[in-house]
Structure formats: structure tokens, C-alpha cells
Amino acid sequence: MKKTAAIIGAGIAGIASAIRLANKGYDVHVFEANSYPGGKLSSFEVKGYRFDAGPSLFTLPHLVEELFEISGKTPKAYFDYIRLDEACRYFWDDGVRLTAHASQRAFAQEIEEKLGEPSAHVLAHLKDSAVKYNVTEKLFLHRSLHKISTYFNRDAFKGYANMHRLDAFTTMNSSNERRFQNPRVVQLFNRYATYNGSDPYQTPATMNIIPHLEYNIGAFFPKKGMVDITESLVKLAEELGVKFYYNTKITKLETQENWVTKLIFDANTPAPDSYDIVVSNMDVVNTFRKLLPEAKQPERILRQPKSSSALIFYWGVKKSFAELGLHNIFFSNDYRAEFEYLFRQKTLYSDPTVYINITSKHKPDDAPEGGENWFILVNAPNNEGQDWEALIEQSRQDVLRKVSHNLGVNIADFIECEEILDPRSIESKTSSSQGALYGNSSNNRFAAFLRHANFSREFKNLYFVGGSVHPGGGIPLAILSAKIATDLIDS
After folding, report:
1. How far apart are CA 150 and CA 341, in angstroms?
2. In degrees, to the nearest 5, what angle opens at C-alpha 192 toward C-alphas 434 and 437?
3. Which residues of the chain have pLDDT under 70?
4. What contacts 121, CB < 8 A, 6 or more positions away?
5. Spatial CB neighbours of 401, under 8 Å, sequence gap ≥ 6
6. Distance CA 50, CA 232 (A)
7. Quick one: pLDDT at residue 285?
8. What is the pLDDT of residue 154?
9. I need a labelling partner for 251 at 20 to 30 A (CA). Which of 69, 89, 306, 354 fits?
10. Nearby residues of 25 by Cβ (< 8 Å), 6 or more positions away
11. Cis-peptide into 272, omega within 30 deg
12. CA Rg, the chain, in Å?
């Protein structure tokens, strides 16, 4: 008789876990409280404009392809993507504009021409980013940090010999200020702290590994939009026999001694309620607080400061802007102040950095002819009970003012539909504690060790995946969390 596995949550890590367990011979059931899979990695349509709801940057596509390959499938038969010629377009309020080309040399030359920073400095930074990534990848990203075997193997010893290259004892900003002469180049590379919801003025310079993903490996775009990552993997999982139960909320896990014995649902479901293995893709804080309230709570981890969240405006814009690309950043004039407001004052800054993603640049049917689908993101504090209605209205005006100034038109005149996602709705829709996008923040050098393990020390058949546990948030790390967790099962 087949062993059985229950996955709590159909986020990308839950789906990846289901695929891996199905390949191990498990009968897998995935339970999702929403009516759709993907969690943040989902989509919706308004008045002919299609929007990817959450993550907009696609890196390390081989991690997605691997799930098809281990299932004996050809990835391109399910999922296809392109490598982008440019990573991002940058705008400053004084009219300076810069294109971050995919080619390292073209990017470095662009910075030298536009900002006067020697191209050699940029190339050296990208080389250093690659070194940091290569030191950390196999040691920290592909293995559990909570198993002794992780620290006694060839990859580990190689990592120890290069630990000094990680710059763990200085901040990202301090490291970048040493490297670059122009404050705008510092700002450009400081922004990569936001990729895991952190503060460049606090997070360790080890986080300078992040540019490696875009400039040394590449930034990509799924031909059918980001949601195709979810849809293609769900299709694969179903072909492997995985069963998905939507609108099915699990309210409690019953336990006996050191075993999860039963899943309690909020409504009748045709699925069994007892499984050999349980994998939670739910935020680890809510897994313990809501599903395991009587279990021993790992307070030191659960009470760690949370990452930033986001305020997102989805605008259907009835005009096309040639100066904009797929990814666009309009920088704040005082980056340090913006992060001071975000992490210390827990509110929004009046001159925010604005990110605009426009998938219709590469997928024209995402917007009516002559229009564009704007996904506008402003970094926001996690939810601590702020007056979000007032903050949303303030931020909307700040975004309109900044973008209108840079593009020379009144953007408000062209908005024909709008949807909004704020930390409260992120929290309610994805069960992310406080609406934090990446679980715990990475604002100290020990942050990697302050994420929960991918397994339970108390319950032998309980595992954890997703952005709130090791190795962290974002699509690539969430997929890797599934690999780490499922590799521990039956090992």
C-alpha cells in the first residue's frame, strides 16, 4: 500500500513538494484554502488587463525545469520562457535614466557613460557576487542548516575556506560604498536587499550574492506570464496523480506523542484526514500558532522581526510608454530615509522608490491594444495595525506624482481600472504572518540560522516548506525548500 502525504497550501513550494513526493511513490493530497493554486504566484484579469498577482522576476529557471526532468518529462512541452536582453530600466527624478543590460560589459559601460562610475568597478562587483554565490549555494541553499551532515562534506569544507569572502560582518551599504564612487550606483546595488525584504543599511553584505542571479545567470520571462510557473507545475503534479483540494482550509493538526495523527478541516471534504507525512507550506508562524497551538512553540524563531511587505497597485493604463520596459525602477531621492521609515518607523515614506512591471511589453495580449498592464509595487512595512486606508491614499498620490514627473504626463488621466493589494490582504490571502513577503527579515548576520528548519524536531512526520523557513523567500528559494524537505523524507 502506498504511503500518503498531505501538503498544507498550494503555494509554489507546496506544489514542488507534491511533485517530489509523487516521484518518491507517495499518494499526495494538496489542501488549499483559496479557490486557486499558487499563493502569491497567481493571476487575475480586470477589463481586459491581465495581471500576475505577485512575484514578477524570474531567475534560476533550471529549478523549475528540474521538477519536470525528475518526472521524466520534457520541460518545454509544459513551460517555456525567454532570457531577457535587459534586467531593468532605472529612473531618477532629475532626468537621469539608465538601462541595466543583460550583458555585463554593456551594463558596466552604461553605468560608466551615464553615471561616471568606472566600468571596472561594476565588473568587479559582479565577479564578487558570483564568488559569494558559489561559496553559499551548496552549503546554505541546497541543504538543511539544521543537520550535522551539512557541515561535514566536501562542499562545506570548501565553503569554510572561503568564508572571509562573504563580508558577513559589514552591511550591504557599507560594502557598496567602499566599492563605488557614485552614490547612485550604491543605491542601484543596495536595492537588491529588497529582494528578500531587507534593509541594505542593516543586512549583511553577504546579500550582495543577489545580483549574481540577474547579471551572471540571467533574468527571464515565462512566455505565458509568471502564473505559468504555477499552472504548468500543477498540470505536471496532476499527471503524477497528485490530488488538489481547493476551498479546503485546515484548522488544526491533532497530535499524539511525537506524531501528527489527524488533519482537521473547516468543512466536509472527501479526502482522508490521516497521513504518513504532513508538509506545511503555510507560514511557519501560523502553522504553530493556529494549527499546533498546544504544541511547544519555537518562540525564539517565531518572534524574529519580519521582512517587509508590499503595497501593490494594479493599473490598467490606456496608453503605451516606449521609455518603459518589463522591469522599471523610479528611485527615491533619499534611500536611507525610505528604509528608516520602512523598518524603524513602520510606515511609508513620502518619496518612495516605485517599481513598475509591465508584462504586456513581452506578452501583448495582457492588455488591450494601445494599453499596458502596470503592476506597481512600493515597499511597505509588515502589518502591525497601521492605518492602511490613509497610507494607501497617501502612497497612491506619491506614486502618481513621481511617475508623472518622470514620464512628463499625468498618469492619472490614463488609468481605467485599479486593484490594490496591501499587507492586510497579503496576510489574509496567503496566510503570511503580518503580510511579510519573505518570513523573517535578513537584517542581521545570523538571519539564515534564525529561520525554522525544514523538519519538526518534535513531530517525526511533519515538515516545513516555503518562504518562511530555510532557505528563505522568493521563487527559487521556495522551490529549494521543497527539495531540502523532501530529501529528508525517507532518507
Report:
1. 38
2. 15
3. 151, 155-164, 446-449, 491
4. 179, 180, 181, 185
5. none
6. 18
7. 96
8. 72
9. 306
10. 2, 3
11. no
12. 22
* Burial annotation 330-341 (CB, 10 A radius, 16+ → b, else e): bbbeebeebbeb
Q: So what's the pLDDT on residue 155?
A: 67
Residue 175's region, left for phi above 0, alpha for psi from -120 to 50, else beta, is: alpha
Instruction: Give pLDDT tens digits for 70-86.
Output: 999 999 999 999 999 99
Residue type at 41?
Answer: L
| 331 closest CA partner among 311, 350, 353 | 353
End-to-end alpha-carbon separation of the chain, Å? Answer: 19
CA-to-CA dists, residue 5 to 17, 27, 211, 272, angstroms: 10, 6, 37, 10
Say how far apart CA 296 and CA 459 lie, in whole Å: 11
Tell me how many degrees the CA angle 141-142-147 measures, rounded to the nearest 5: 100
Output the pLDDT for position 162. Answer: 64
Beta-bridge partners for 221:
82
* The three grid cell numbers given for residue 279, joined into one nine-digit string: 508538509
Q: How far is CA 309 from the centre of its chain?
A: 11
| C-alpha–C-alpha distance, residues 262 and 252, integer Å | 8
Contact 10, 238 (CB under 8 A): no
Closest CA to 159 of 174, 176, 145: 145
Q: Answer whether 416's CB lies under 8 Å from 318's CB.
A: yes
**Residue 13: enclosing H or E segment and its boundaries?**
helix 12-23
Place of cell 496523480: 241
Read off the amino acid at residue 109: Q
Contact 250, 451 (CB under 8 A): no
Beta bridge partners of 97: 91
C-alpha cell recorded at residue 444: 542581521
- For residue 464, what is the DSSP state? E
Alpha carbons 372 and 320: distance in angstroms, whole number: 6
Give the separation between CA 271 and CA 76, rounded to whole angstroms.
33
Q: Which of 405, 483, 371, 437 is nearest to 194 (CA)?
A: 437
